[in-house]
Amino acid sequence: MLGAPEKPPGAACCKRVEGTDALEAFIFATPSSTQEGKREQFQSMACNARDALLAEGFASTDIVSGWAHFASAPSWRWQEALAKVWQVSLPVPLPITGLLQPPAAPLRYCSLLVHVIRSGGTSRVWRGHTVRPSATTVLRANARHLRLSSILPRTGLADSTTVAEFTYDMLAQANHALTARGLSFKDVVRTWLYVRNIDRNYGALNEGRNRFFGEQRITRFPASTCVEGTFFGADFPVAMDLYAVACNDDVGVEAIPPGPLGEAHVYGSSFARGVRLSEPGRSLVYLSGTPSIDAQGDVFSIGDVTGQLDRMFDNARALLGQVGMDLGRTVSAIAYLKHGEDYDDFLKAALAHGLSSAVPTAVVIADICRSEWLCEIELCAARPT
User: Fold this and answer.
1) Per-residue confidence band for 19, with pLDDT thresholds at 50, 70 and 90
2) Which residues contact 211 (CB under 8 A, 6 or more apart)?
3) Which of 119, 231, 315, 361 could form a disulfide with 22 if both were Cys (CB 3.0 to 4.6 A apart)?
4) Residues near 48 by beta carbon (within 8 Å), at least 6 away in sequence
5) Model confidence over 349-380: pLDDT tens digits?
6) CA distances (Å), 156 to each of 152, 166, 196, 235, in order?
């Protein structure tokens, strides 16, 4: 449980989402033992995920999005291995992003966090992992929910292409995929941005993103996470996943107030601190990557991981409090730590601040957009209305 040095071996936890017209949940799975080799850990993680899916009444084809985090690039075809354990045939609609972001738990090679929905209005198109994005569409409350995974810039760009230009091109490719399905970037609720050498390239990413958002006249910024990360087999400095919703009279999306953090766009980052999705029967909040920051945008508790963890959770609680929620409403989370040795400190802080060990939570090692930040957390919270 949280507060102990590590979650029990083979942890596979599930959190169902209340107040929806579909069966929906988040599931987090890890290997049964950290004493085994890489392939054996992956195999047991896949089995644990399969068993958790079946126990909750889901199948692998109910997955709409997910992240597989690895300590190093697997030497085998991990998606084919996953499909074999789950007894499905390739090509299959498994929109799972494989990331080089090591799990923070000691000796753990991999972990898997997936979002599953069983609905009569679900369709999937698998178009490959690194050539074109995979797409998953769910019809809920008569609104279309679209997930695009593994979005990259175009291949064949000139060697002189800058990171800002790669970012702009990647966003343009995402917009093409959205418009092909009847949406646009103005419908995007949430983005996940992965950057190589983020300390050096974050400014250039903001330059490309700001230019694209300005040209598209984006006024309601999406929630976003931007951290160090690499897609396997993708030789680009930037990559992305996103979530978009085509709203209607019953389903709406709005950015939540920035609370004690201040607006990110004031210092040049075009994203909202969080976004609320309202639909019949429930409200969901997608919190952006939330670090230890004060109202002026400065890093709080430089060099002190305990102080930064406390401020990180305080900030997350304050943002959720503005829309009538708290950390007890969390249904899924990903925490990013700059240093793996801070894993135990994260577990203790999570316990102290009320993030339950029953919540599917991936804790990985990744640099954040400022070198002084030691931790960041993103989460999804839900409550019935």
Assistant:
1) low
2) 164, 168
3) 119
4) 10, 11, 12, 29, 30, 31, 32
5) 999 999 998 999 999 999 998 889 999 999 99
6) 12, 11, 19, 11
CB 46 within 8 A of CB 81: yes
**H/E element, 292:** none
CA distances from 113 to 30, 211, 252, 301, 304 (A): 9, 32, 26, 30, 29
Identity at 201, one-letter amino acid code: N
Is the Cβ–Cβ distance between 115 and 134 less than 8 Å? no
Spatial distance between the Cα atoms of 153 and 162, rounded to a whole number of angstroms: 12
**How far is residue 250 from each of residues 243, 257, 278, 385, measured CA to CA in Å?**
18, 22, 8, 13
For 256-385, give the CATH class: alpha beta
The tens digit of pLDDT for each residue in 262-312 reads 888 887 889 999 999 999 889 999 999 999 988 777 888 899 999 999 999
Using alpha carbons, select from 355, 352, 303, 367 the residue that is nearest to residue 329: 355
Could you give the CA distance from residue 380 to residue 235 in angstroms, rounded to a whole number? 30
Per-residue exposure over 158-168, b if at least 16 CB sit within 10 Å of its own CB, e if not: eeeeebbbbbb
CA distances from residue 45 to 12, 32, 52, 353 in whole angstroms, order as listed: 9, 7, 10, 28
How far is Cα 259 from Cα 27, in angstroms, rounded to an integer? 30
Q: Following CA atoms 54, 56, 58, 64 in sequence, which dihedral angle do they give, to the nearest 10 degrees?
A: -120
Q: Is the separation of the CB atoms in 239 and 231 below 8 Å?
A: yes
DSSP 3-state assignment of 321? helix
Q: Which of 241, 216, 243, 238 has the alpha carbon at shortest distance from 153?
A: 238
